[in-house]
Design goal:
Layout lengths: L1 H11 L20 E3 L11 H6 L6 H6 L7 E2 L4 E2 L11 H6 L9 H7 L7 E2 L16 H12 L9 E2 L1 H17 L11 E9 L7 H9 L17 H7 L5 E11 L2 E11 L8 H4 L6
Parallel strand pairs: 1-2, 3-4, 5-7
Antiparallel strand pairs: 6-8, 7-8
Helix pairs in contact: 6-8
Pfam families: CAP, ShK
GO molecular function, one term: toxin activity
InterPro entries: Allrgn_V5/Tpx1_CS (IPR018244), CAP_dom (IPR014044), CAP_sf (IPR035940), CRISP-related (IPR001283), SCP_GAPR1-like (IPR034113), ShKT_dom (IPR003582)
């Protein structure tokens, strides 16, 4: 009977997985040192789980888990080596859920989220270089307008007006802040608006806007020269009596979506009722 009990005792001294690693024993005391030496580092992936389960006074655990059980302080993390990196996309989320210090997940996190869990120190990343806000290129914008006007013989070229450009910028900022596209009222200036949105990073230009406005020519009826909502941008671009232009654009990134607002202002303003025939000249034949 004694031999049978002794055999059962020996069998239960150590079990597999992360279960209780054996009976509670009173053996030699482990002297705590300031920082764990190589021989004191955890020798079993189940150490943190056993510690959280209250097994640190078991001899088997004492011998193998001095680091997790607090008999010494873990050494400070060292700079990450080339092979020490996060291998899963969910590391930050799992860390926020406390899994880095959860004994049941400790080994998985150590193998897959080495940097996020702080087992090594990642090199500092350089802050992103500040990039200037996109702006309208006055020369390019003016050229885009005048190239379209040149297609209509007798239509004079425009000149750039900084004051109009500033007015356009103020209104573009307003549109971007509201996330809408609407004309300003009672400015005494002609106005064209353009919006472009993309899930990519492309920022539209004044050239893009002018092309979109001019494309309305396909719907303009020279036999019935009147204002129409479907051609009003085109007629503003080529309006003969207009002599000055200024424009601005604003970029907004919202939820991964890049939005560009372009505003152009004109003086004298076009699209005046009863004056379309004399100001919207036909294409060269």
């Amino acid at each position: 009977m004694y031999n049978l009990l002794l055999g059962l005792f020996l069998i239960t001294f150590q079990v597999g997985c992360y279960g209780a690693p054996g009976p509670r024993m009173n053996g030699k005391q482990v002297v705590k040192r300031a920082v764990c030496t190589e021989d004191q580092l955890d020798k079993n992936p189940g150490c943190l789980y056993w510690k959280q389960s209250g097994y640190c006074d078991y001899e088997y655990v004492k011998a193998r888990c001095q680091e997790s059980c607090g008999f010494c302080d873990p050494p400070p993390p060292q700079p990450c080596k080339a092979n020490e990196n996060d291998k899963k996309n969910g590391c930050k989320s799992w860390k926020n859920q406390g899994l880095c210090k959860n004994g049941q997940y400790h080994q998985f996190m150590k193998e897959n989220c080495y940097v996020t869990c702080g087992y090594c120190i990642a090199p500092p990343t350089s802050p992103p270089r500040a990039t200037p806000a996109p702006q309208v290129d006055p020369d390019a914008c003016l050229k885009a307008h005048n190239e379209k006007r040149a297609l209509h013989p007798g239509t004079p070229m425009l000149v750039w007006d900084d004051a109009l450009a500033q007015h356009a910028k103020t209104w573009a900022d307003h549109l971007a802040s509201k996330g809408t596209l609407e004309h300003a009222e009672n400015t005494g200036e002609g106005e064209n608006l353009y919006y472009f949105g993309t899930s990519g990073s492309y920022v539209a230009t004044c050239d893009d806007a002018v092309q979109a406005w001019y494309d309305e020519i396909k719907d303009y009826d020279y036999q019935n020269p009147v204002f129409s909502l479907s051609t009003g941008h085109f007629t503003a671009v080529v309006w003969k009596s207009t002599t000055r232009v200024g424009a601005a654009l604003v970029k907004v990134v919202d939820g991964g979506y890049t939005k560009t607002y372009v505003v152009a202002r004109y003086l004298p303003q076009g699209n005046m009722k009863g004056r379309f025939a004399e100001n919207v000249l036909p294409l060269a034949s």
